[in-house]
Amino acid sequence: MSTSRFAEYLCPDKLAELADIAKRLTTPGKGILAADESVSTCGKRLQDINVENTEDNRRKYRELLFSTDDSLSQNISGVILFDETTKQKDKNGTPFLQILEQKGIIPGIKVDKGVVPLAGTINECTTTGLDGLKERCDEYKRMGCHFAKWRCVLKITQYTPSYLAMLENANVLARYASICQQAGLVPIVEPEVLPDGTHDLGMSQRVTEEVLAFVYKALADHHVYLEGTLLKPNMVTAGQGYTGAKPSPDQVATATVQALNRRVPPAVAGVVFLSGGQGEESATVHLNAINKCPLRRPWALTFSYGRALQASVLLAWGGKDESIKAAQEQLLKRAKANGLASVGEYTGGMAGVAGETSLFVANHAY
Ligand code: 13P
Q1: Chain-wide mean pLDDT for the chain?
Q2: Is residue 306 lining ligand 1, measured as CB closer than 6 Å?
Q3: Taking residues 26-43, what's their average pLDDT?
Q4: 307 alpha carbon to ligand 1 midpoint, in Å?
Q5: Reported pTM
Q6: How many Å lie between the centroid of ligand 1 and the Cα of residue 305?
Q7: Is residue 62 a contact partner of residue 47, using CB atoms and an 8 Å limit?
Q8: CA distance 294 to 44
Q9: Is-contact 278 332, C-beta < 8 A?
Q10: 273 CB under 6 A from ligand 1?
Q11: Confidence bin at 365 (pLDDT 50/70/90)
């Protein structure tokens, strides 16, 4: 029986392992490729380029991503996979997990089961997937995954996010994080404040700060080891429907870093932003401005982009075998640009074929 009211549930070796994984994921100049779209979300991306949403087409697309030249690992430290992808192989029969490992890219896994309505709120939601999570995490670790992702969603309206939504989503993120750490997976904690709405930058900052306060209280309550976690937040931007003057990259950067400074403990290993419907070039320019911001920045600040790393790739590919190389070049280019932005060295001129096309999807589901 424990002699203290603090029951230590992670041994020193496990703590060191978690901190090491988190550190490798946030190596300077590198970030994460989020390729964990569910079957239906991947289907929407494929539909946009007139490719049918079959298991083999999803497999082909992921093969295109993972068989990109080894130099991809210069800017990509990890890839987040969807369950289906962890079991798939390339055309020669090599498992995707093995291909990534051989490139020195750490495989990760999305473990949440999606958002569901949160009763007693005005159209707010929580995220499901805790049932059987420990067993699933143990299995993913055995297969070679070393980190995980769980996305919660908060919405800005006149009446939201509610106290209940912030409390519930923070708690479910903390339960998930604690379970992941027991299995040796670094949890990426993702409380996404959606860009939907007409709110200004100041409102986005206040809500982001409030949501993060709930998250770090819950992580503390659940004794989560912060050095072995990553935060995946939204950048602080004005709402998609805001009609005033568009905030400059420096304004976005200041609001974002200020919010993080006020609410994220320095022990957290790193912050890996989602792109949240920003155009590819904006997501890069904003990340660069964040890394040049004169405010204190005690954590690595890098990317874990889905849409902003894949829009040009999908467009260049168009489902054609003869375009695979061109698509992979787009991925290398986006990874390189964001890798530079993650250390504040992006000087522009590296836009992909998708350019600044809006990647906003209302009420985005993953
Ligand atoms: P976007 O970069 O497309 O916002 O998505 C990243 C992600 O993994 C959301 O969970």
Answers
A1: 96
A2: yes
A3: 98
A4: 6
A5: 0.97
A6: 5
A7: no
A8: 40
A9: no
A10: no
A11: confident
